[in-house]
Design goal:
Bound molecules: 7-O-phosphono-alpha-L-galacto-hept-2-ulopyranose
Number of domains: 2
Largest sheet: 8 strands, mixed
CATH class of the largest domain: Alpha Beta
Strand content: 25-35%
Mean pLDDT: 94
Helix content: 25-40%
CATH topology of the largest domain: Fructose-1,6-Bisphosphatase, Chain A, domain 1
Length: about 325
């Protein structure tokens, strides 16, 4: 007879993979009710409230390390907030209950509800500041692109490694005036640029999905979004490097307080997510990665991707919620 021993921590971590789907589903449905209403703050608040309610049902002893901001400015899911029912492992939690609040308010593609969970002390405690990032998908030799190399060099090296012409490479970045020089440098190589108005967590993840046609993420976005994207790439493969942009004394103080000693450190994925993690995202509005929430008669449909770094498993969960639809629980 074969005896199978399951380590308790491992069992809990596996179970959590599906549990966190409920968390992002609820946040997505709650904010989707305000899709296209032009109310950035209200849709974000709805996502935060729903996510917090679901998180508190999970068998975890969790601390929010990437959240909606510091305690005095965020009433819920603030950095340092304790979540979960305490009957489980100690974990770090990174959340962006509504990534792309403006996308949701304007009912534009690509708003998502997202979360990453990892063992306590393993996620980078990034402040709400900017972060310079570079990311590519899996299958390339390590170091083929580098955060500190000129953009032209990165595009040429990537094209060579992929076996295509530079003009057959597509970069993605946020459409911001701060990227004017970067855009000019990338275009000089002949590469195409896909400009996004918001949503750079998905922007990074697109690099790991050949169907999107995106090869490389470049530029400056939010630091919290950077850590969440790093968690996803830790699960599905790919390379990412990042550096916080700490440009004021006040921010330097805050980051020191959060345990960041070297403000200029170049982070690899393993520095932002220092162990195994889970990542999940549910579509709020439809985008290249996920379908948005669909409200039907007595049924609400959601589309979620959930990933687990231990095994590299990526699951797509398309759910039909009859109970939410009936009782309007969110
Ligand atoms: C990005 C993007 C977000 O903020 O991180 C961006 O992913 C960075 O800040 O969806 P700026 O808007 O100031 O450039 C968002 O656009 C909004 O949180």
């Amino acid at each position: 007879m074969v005896t199978i021993t399951v380590q308790p921590e491992l069992a809990i971590e596996r179970i959590l993979t599906l549990e966190i789907v409920r968390v992002t589903e609820r946040a997505a449905v709650a904010s989707a009710r305000l899709r296209g209403h032009g109310k950035d703050k209200a849709s974000d608040q709805a996502a935060v409230d729903a996510m917090r309610r679901e998180l508190n049902k999970l068998p975890i002893d969790g601390t929010v390390v990437i959240g909606e901001g510091e305690i005095d400015e965020a009433p819920m899911l603030f950095i340092g907030e304790k979540v979960g029912n305490k009957r489980g492992p100690k974990v770090d939690i990174a959340v962006d209950p509504l990534e792309g609040t403006t996308l949701c308010a304007k009912n534009m593609p690509g708003a998502i509800a997202t979360i990453a969970i990892a063992n306590e002390g393993t996620l980078l405690h990034a402040p709400d500041c900017y972060m310079q990032k570079i990311a590519i998908g899996p299958g390339y030799p390590k170091g083929v692109v580098d955060l500190d190399a000129p953009p032209e060099e990165n595009i040429l090296n990537l094209a060579k490694a992929k076996g295509v012409k530079p003009s057959e490479i597509t970069a993605i970045m946020l459409d911001r005036p701060r990227h004017a020089d970067l855009i000019a440098s990338v275009r000089k190589t002949g590469a195409a640029i896909s400009l996004i108005s918001d949503g750079d967590i998905a922007g990074v993840i697109h690099c790991a999905d050949p169907k999107t046609g995106i090869d490389i993420y470049l530029g400056i976005g939010g630091a919290p979004e950077g850590v969440l994207a790093a968690a996803a790439l830790r699960c599905i493969g790919g390379q990412m490097q990042a550096r916080l942009i700490i440009d004021t004394e006040e921010l330097r103080e805050r980051t020191l307080h959060m345990g960041i000693k070297d403000p200029k450190k170049k982070y690899e994925i393993e520095d932002m997510v220092r162990g195994d993690c889970l990542f999940a995202a549910t579509g709020v509005t439809s985008g290249p990665m996920l379908d948005g929430v669909r409200f039907g008669k007595n049924v609400i449909e959601t589309d979620t991707v959930v990933m687990r770094s231990v095994t590299g498993t990526v699951r797509r969960v398309r759910a039909e919620h009859r109970e939410f639809a009936k009782f309007h629980l969110d």
